[in-house]
Design brief:
Layout lengths: L3 H4 L7 E10 L4 E8 L5 E8 L3 E8 L2 E9 L4 E5 L2 E3 L6 H13 L1 E3 L3 E7 L8 E7 L2 E3 L10 E6 L1 H10 L5 H16 L3
Parallel strand pairs: 4-10
Antiparallel strand pairs: 1-2, 2-3, 4-5, 4-7, 5-6, 5-12, 8-11, 9-10
Helix pairs in contact: 3-4
Length: 189
């Protein structure tokens, strides 16, 4: 990603003229910015602020660890890779290690950063940091009080079937499945 200072030089850059806070929650905040467009006109941009998140592609005995949980915005149960938001001041790698053990009961002895990506750049600033590990040892699950999920290990064929059935439909897990397939085919990400 480019340095933010370099972005000011881009001809499409939108200068913020005013920011109005709309909502402040425990996970996100919402603001409306008035911006100056490249053609001199003004427009509004609704922006969701989020501290960022981590997700882990964890492979155990040629199976990927996933969690199944209810997702209220979709009104359905989803199968996803272990993931969670960054705590204030937390480094992404530490968060990935924490979330993996909390949600799956497995500890990573080593972990590799694969990519960081934006989830919805049209309205949200959230960045997800994706990690990989196949160096796992048994630990202990530590679910949050409001977290209800189960963990299972699935094969690549099962992951593909879950995608076809719509049980896997979130971007981070789709990316994880395709990255895992690439890894199995080529030996690298």
């Amino acid at each position: 990603m480019s340095d933010k200072n370099e972005q000011h030089l881009h001809p499409f850059y939108e200068k913020t003229l005013e920011t109005k806070p709309i909502f402040e929650g425990r996970m996100i905040s919402l603001q409306v910015d008035t911006v100056l467009l490249p053609n001199g006109e003004t427009a509004t941009r609704e922006i969701v602020r989020h501290p960022g998140a981590v997700a882990v592609v964890a492979i155990l005995d040629d199976k990927m660890l996933v969690v199944e949980q209810f997702r209220k915005p979709l009104e359905k149960v989803q199968v996803e890779i272990p993931a969670g938001k960054l705590d204030a001041g937390e480094e992404p790698e530490a968060a990935a290690l924490r979330e993996l053990e909390e949600e799956t009961g497995y500890r990573a002895r080593s972990i590799t950063h694969l990519r960081s990506f934006s989830t919805s750049p049209g309205f949200a600033e959230e960045i997800v940091h994706l990690y990989f590990t196949s160096d796992l040892e048994r630990g202990e699950m530590h679910l949050d009080d409001e977290e209800f999920l189960t963990c299972e290990a699935i094969t690549l064929d099962e992951a593909q079937r879950y995608i076809e059935e719509g049980r896997i439909c979130d971007a981070k897990t789709l990316l994880a499945v395709y990255a895992w397939r690439m890894y199995k085919l080529t030996g690298s990400f």
